[in-house]
DNA sequence: CTTTAAAAATGAACCCGTTCAAGTTTTTTG
DNA sequence: CAAAAAACTTGAACGGGTTCATTTTTAAAG
């Protein structure tokens, strides 16, 4: 009987993950108590802490699964982006956005981001930050591809502009998860508007890109 | 004797704020216990909770003071921005950045952001989000001013582009406070680089703006 | 198969933010 | 000025995340 201990360990881990996902989605992160999660996973509270360093650490396991899936889907989009700059950007970004609520609630996203910001030195945060960096790199890579095709101005720093576009979409995503009323459709409209501006600015000289709209009044 | 109660109240509030600011800076937000803050302010724990709804609420009072000051300084920069687009953007943004560590530590910023994201419906978060919106509006206003002067392309949506620029600087600021090693100088270099890209893209046709650098290789 | 050692599970105890019933001080009323 | 009401202070008690000494289970050694 090779590895009874290992099997039991894997089993308990799976049960904890399942229980946590269920309870987080059902009652929310704050309301889901460690004791509840442990009970449902049929382990004691102490055992839970042998598997995860703390409650936040447990959330990462779930969030990370989601983001890995998004990265994989995004990768397949990099090879052949649409020729239209706005469409290419929006298409890639929608891959990210449209996956976002598959397994995670907005509250779970908020909590994950929140913990990541507050404790940047933890493995949780480092992992999360690294996933962000990889998403950002995908946007840069897409811009570079478009640039090599001539769809984007050759004199632009694609890597830097990719970061700007990613930072923008990331911030919009934060707004999205912070507003329970906001739908994915709303978010997509916002990002399409922003991307249209960017596309108008970076489109190659010869491309038939639609030029941006006129300016609105300013504030403050 | 008009308002003994009012004077005592103001006094206690001042003492609590001072004690909290001191302890947060000295020992960090997490390590500063409510009991310690209350002791130092010469009130009981119960009394503390008559003045602030919770620990995070107390942080807002400090953070808000800092941001209000930044907004005021920023306002004075709006009327007469430098003609150079990159210089105008970087100048405004440096007002924000250079003030940021006057009264607050990185850890305090992280905590404030963290709480704001996790509990968006609280007054704390609403206030913080509103301050962000006002900063964003300042960036938009500056772009609009430059546009009216002809330093920025007339066909650009200044309000939308202002949001993009703000989202970018905000995200960079998050990176900054998440990395204890990173200095303000490092941050300013990063934002100058990003702004140079933006400036190159949005500069008015006739302006003598420096064109952006060549593109780097892409990733992923 | 016993014995010994290592690994893991357990729940009571601890810490700290928050709440609340009871007590105290200030203000208002007559 | 006394009595009643209102406003405020207080610290003990509560809840939930986390820790740790102890016990139990599995693996290794003889």
TrEMBL record, chains A, B:
GO MF term set: DNA-binding transcription factor activity; transcription cis-regulatory region binding
Pfam families: TetR_N
Keyword set, alphabetical order: DNA-binding, Transcription, Transcription regulation
Coiled coil: none
Domain of life from the UniProt record: Bacteria
Record-annotated DNA-binding residue ranges: 33-52
InterPro entries: Homeodomain-like_sf (IPR009057), HTH-type_TetR-like_transc_reg (IPR050109), HTH_TetR (IPR001647)
Keyword match Protein biosynthesis: no
Domain annotation HTH tetR-type: ranges: 10-70
Protein name: TetR family transcriptional regulator
Natural source organism: Albidovulum denitrificans
């Amino acid at each position: 009987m090779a590895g009874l201990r290992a099997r039991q360990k894997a089993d308990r881990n799976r049960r904890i993950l399942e229980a946590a996902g269920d309870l987080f989605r059902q009652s929310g992160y704050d309301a889901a108590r460690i004791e509840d999660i442990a009970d449902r996973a049929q382990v004691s509270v102490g055992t839970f802490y042998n598997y995860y360093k703390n409650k936040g650490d447990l959330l990462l396991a779930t969030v990370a699964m989601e983001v890995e899936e998004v990265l994989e889907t995004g990768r397949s989009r990099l090879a052949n982006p649409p020729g239209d700059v706005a469409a290419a950007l929006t298409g890639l970004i929608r891959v990210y956005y449209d996956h976002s609520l598959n397994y995670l609630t907005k509250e779970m996203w908020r909590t994950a981001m929140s913990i990541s910001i507050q404790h940047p030195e933890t493995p949780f945060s480092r992992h999360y930050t690294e996933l962000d960096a990889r998403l950002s790199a995908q946007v840069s890579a897409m811009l570079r591809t478009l640039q090599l095709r001539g769809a984007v101005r050759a004199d632009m720093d694609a890597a830097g502009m990719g970061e700007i576009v990613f930072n923008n979409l990331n911030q919009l995503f934060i707004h999205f998860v912070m507003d329970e009323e906001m739908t994915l459709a709303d978010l997509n409209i916002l990002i399409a508007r922003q991307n249209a501006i960017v596309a108008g600015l970076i489109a190659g000289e010869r491309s038939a890109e639609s030029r941006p709209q006129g300016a609105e009044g300013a504030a403050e």
